[in-house]
Amino acid sequence: MSSTEPARRADDMPAALPSMWRALRRGFDAEPALLTVAFALALLAALPDALMAVWLKLLADGLLGDDSTLVAVAAGGLAASATLTWVLRVVSDRTQRRFRDRVTIALESHVAGLQAGVATVEHHERPDYLDRIAMLRDQVFVLDHMYMSLFTTAGWILRLAVTVGLLVSIHPALALLALCALPTVATASWRPAVERAVDERGAQAQRLARHLFDVATTAAPGKDVRVTGIGPRLVRDRRAAWERWYRPVAAARWASAAWHTLGWSVFAAGYVGAVVFVAAGLRASPGDVLLLLAAGSRLAGYVSATVGEIGFLRGIWLDGSRRMAWLEDYAAAQAERADRPAPASIQRGIALENVSFAYPSTDRLVLENVDLELPAGAVVALVGENGAGKTTLVKLLAKMYEPSAGRILVDGEDLARMPAAEWRSRLAGAFQDFFRFELQAQRTVGVGDVPRLDERPAVETAVGRAGAGGVVGTLAAGLDTQLGPTWPNGVEVSVGQWQKLSLARGFMRDEPLLLVLDEPTASLDAETEHALFERYASASRGGGNGDRAAGGRITLLVSHRFSTVRMADLIVVLDGARVVEVGSHEELMAKAGHYAELYDIQAAAYR
């Protein structure tokens, strides 16, 4: 399936069957023995229940014919069927539950691995993909039920087959009673697909409703919500978004329920007709009439249960497995065709040749025809107004996206041909929109270099590089302190402290080839930012002794504070998606161009 192809409808059974089979294989690969045993037990548990009607017929025949042996056989059969039904149901349920628990981990891990394994972040930022993944994220928690539903469906089908066989033993025409159930099968199979399609069309409104609920009820935005007084507005907007999702869903449910009721009316009429036919038309024995009543009433229950499970399979399993198949295909389509290793060092530098980029689902170029040289061992600053393309350029250098046009070369080799994971292992950095890892402080920092996650000296060195020693010193247990107030013994720290810990995480790798600092100190004061950047710029230049940084490391600084970026060897000025100026601070000031104008505006604010 193409990554741009719309999701197939759940009622497209021929298209959905391969997805279902792939999902089945995923569960079998995870727990083959448990799946086999659970399926066999589900079938065994169906037989005693389906034979209850036979024992009732024999009991009636024995009582009316004064046959004590037949009565004893029927009573024993009823007792055995009741006991076995209970025992096998309990054992089957426990086995299925154990299988479900174990396969849940496998499915969740598989979906998480697929999302995390995609080299780019397009699927995290495209609204259409986000809607589809949000639906899958909800469904992955019920995908484990699909196996139980399959086991149960097989059991109901076996019961249904036995029951139809018993009815045919009275008269072949009674097989038509099963045909009377076809309208219910059709409506039960059709209903979930229709309701799911409406639900999917409203996925964006549902996602908005959840987001507004989180904004109104979680701690992070709590101060802003209260200071601005936006709480009542959030409640109204959340209600409106929920209504936009639920109103068409409710209408679809009412309409499908009406059709389903009509289908059951057809079966009810057929059942009444069958009783009249056997009792009055055939003048059958009381035992046969009792068999029809017992089997016919059970047939209604079996049909109801069967079509209900089929509806679940179509509405959840086929739909969820189809989305999982889409994610698998998308991940496979995005698999890199890399044939060049990432370099161990940079000798000449990184070059952007006529690079243009537009985010998916838009034609607006965020970067246009960018030609740029980042020399090995240099400290390079990116400046420009908001929306100029600075962060986008950083994403391209980190292979979060591939250029829409042009190419990026590392010592003359195309970056697109290098494995993303291998290239990123040569990178380090910190970002303004950092993530708060609510772990022990050591691990919050240590995840910046996973192989050395638990190495205390490496973490302490990174903390020192980031100037975060004061933050760690204020924590009750130092690096062993649990961060995040929602955890046992967890503590909350300020935004500035979180940012310093994030900066330390970015400094975990000792010798990165590309160090990216994308406004990682926006929550710190200008003096602290300047001191940090100056210290690290000096280290990047080989400690100020004129030596090139280890491995030809390139340090890329992004900041709005011109007092900070003036220390860079090279300043790149972006404006309107283009590189408009390149040079040192002195060279750019002498040009009296865009950089000089921005610098003077900011400098005037401090006078």
Could you please describe the fold and organization of this structure?
By secondary structure, the protein is of the alpha/beta class. The chain has three domains: 13-331, ABC transporter transmembrane region fold; 346-426 and 512-607, P-loop containing nucleotide triphosphate hydrolases (Rossmann fold), CATH 3.40.50; 434-511, no CATH class. The chain is 62% helix and 10% strand. The protein contains 23 helices and ten strands. The chain has helices spanning 13-30, 32-50, 52-64, 68-117, 122-125, 127-143, 145-170, 176-179, 182-201, 203-217, 222-228, 231-281, 286-333, 390-397, 420-424, 441-446, 456-465, 469-474, 495-506, 526-540, 562-565, 585-591, 594-605, and strands at residues 349-358, 365-375, 379-383, 405-410, 413-414, 427-431, 514-518, 554-558, 570-575, 578-583. The strands form two sheets. The chain has a six-stranded mixed beta sheet with strand order 6-7-8-3-9-10, sandwiched between helices. A four-stranded antiparallel beta sheet has the order 2-1-4-5, covered by helices on one side. Helix 20 (526-540) links the parallel strand 7 and strand 8. The longest helix is centred in the middle third of the chain and has 51 residues, at 231-281. It is elongated, with a radius of gyration of 34 Å. The protein starts with 12 loop residues before the first helix and ends with a helix. Residues 1-11 and 543-547 have low confidence and may be disordered.
